[in-house]
Amino acid sequence: MELTHRPRRLRRTESIRTLVRETVLHPGDFIQPLFVIEGQNVREPIDSMPGQFRLSIDMLVEECKVLLDLGVPAVNLFGYSEEKDPQGSASYRSDGLIQRAVSEIKLRVPDICAQTDVALDPYTDHGHDGVLMDGEIANDESIAVLVRMALSHAEAGVDWVAPSDMMDGRIGAIRVALDDAGYERVGILAYSAKYASCFYGPFRGALKSEPRERDDVPKDKKTYQMDPANIDEAIKEIALDIEEGADVVMVKPALAYLDVIARARDTFDVPIAAYNVSGEYGMILAAAERGWVDRDTAMLEVLTSIKRAGADMILTYFSKDAAKVLGG
Ligand code: PBG
Predict the structure, then answer these.
(1) Closest C-alpha among 74, 111, 69, 112 to residue 328
(2) Which residues sit opposite 327 in a β-bridge?
(3) Which tens digits make up the pLDDT trace of 271-294?
(4) Which atom of ligand 1 is nearest to 129's Cα?
(5) Residue 118's closest CA among 38, 196, 191?
(6) What does the pLDDT read at residue 192?
(7) Domain residue limits, the chain
(8) Distance 218 CA to ligand 1 centre (A)
(9) Distance, CA 195 to ligand 1 centroid (Å)?
(10) What backbone torsions phi and psi does residue 271 show, to the nearest 5 degrees?
């Protein structure tokens, strides 16, 4: 048989496949989300996220060293707060948990890119990302608190703040406040297209941050996080964040939204991040535990798909393991 085209020729050996590979993962693509807790020498396993821990600041610093040695350039910090009130006022103290964690990291592991989550849910007693007023999450009042939170992180020396709250106009407000205070160098990683997703469940368990079951509290985050059915709206949200001064824009979750990542890649010329969230991590772990998929192969396949879709960087709980497998 005479065939002009034989694509299989380029799949014949591992060396040939390496030469024609279009997407290559690298430890430098990853950002490891880390959970910080008060105390010393604490490395508390998170039930809902096997392999992930709540770390006291001393252990956090050690983890940052390990990650950087493996070639992972960044960490994104979330605080586990026992102190919760309606306004989330523990979020912006200059001597708060995250603020101390950032200073310590920048002192001891200065080369790692330290990023912080900016949202109120770990600090509010109702579990929402903003301030609750008359049974609703108040947009502009929430921004006022988020700006204070971002400034306190900047003061501690953070490299990037990462607002994950989805309030309208918060990127512009944070950018202006940072610049006015002399923090022009602090970057903004904006959770621009963040969907109201069920895949955040294990994360909420890690921080005890799920919206509380109370009559005066909205039971979900659908009035600020996006409807999973929408993609044009994601493009609009991303455009607004870029206009307001975002340095990097993010799509979250990643796997059920690969089309959104791809469309953002085609539309915008800015760095794009994707968040491979806790539920996506959990699905692979659970299936691997049952022997239904091979854990490491699934991990790399999924991370490759996110990069192939167009993400320049990936927030993933697999950062350390993937960097090890990739030989970082
Ligand atoms: C909250 C926040 C969430 C995540 C990151 N920041 C949860 C939520 O919006 O309820 C989820 C991350 C994950 O699931 O891995 N500001």
Answers:
(1) 69
(2) none
(3) 999 999 999 999 999 999 999 999
(4) 16
(5) 191
(6) 98
(7) 23-326
(8) 16
(9) 10
(10) -60, 135
Tokens for 162?
Answer: 């990462």
- Nearest protein CA to atom 10 of ligand 1, as residue: 200
pLDDT digits (tens, 9 = 90+) for 104-142: 999 999 999 999 999 999 999 999 999 999 999 999 999
Which of 170, 163, 147 minimizes the C-alpha distance to 248?
A: 163
Q: What is the pTM of this model?
A: 0.97
The alpha carbon of 196 and the centre of ligand 1 are apart by a number of angstroms equal to: 10
- Catalytic sites, residue numbers: 194, 252
Q: Exposed, middle or buried, 185 (CB in 10 Å: 0-12/13-18/19+)? A: exposed
Homologous superfamily (CATH) of 23-326 is: Aldolase class I (3.20.20.70)
Give residue 254 CA to ligand 1 midpoint distance, Å.
13
| Amino acid in the structure at residue 324 | K
**What does the alpha-carbon distance between residue 318 and residue 199 come to, in Å, rounded to a whole number?**
16
Q: Give, rounded to a whole angstrom, the gap between the first and last alpha carbons of the chain.
A: 45
State the Cα–Cα distance between residues 199 and 244, nearest whole angstrom: 28
**Atom number, ligand 1, closest to the C-alpha of residue 199:** 14
Q: Which residues line ligand 1 (CB under 6 A)?
A: 117, 119, 121, 129, 164-165, 200, 203-204, 221, 277-278
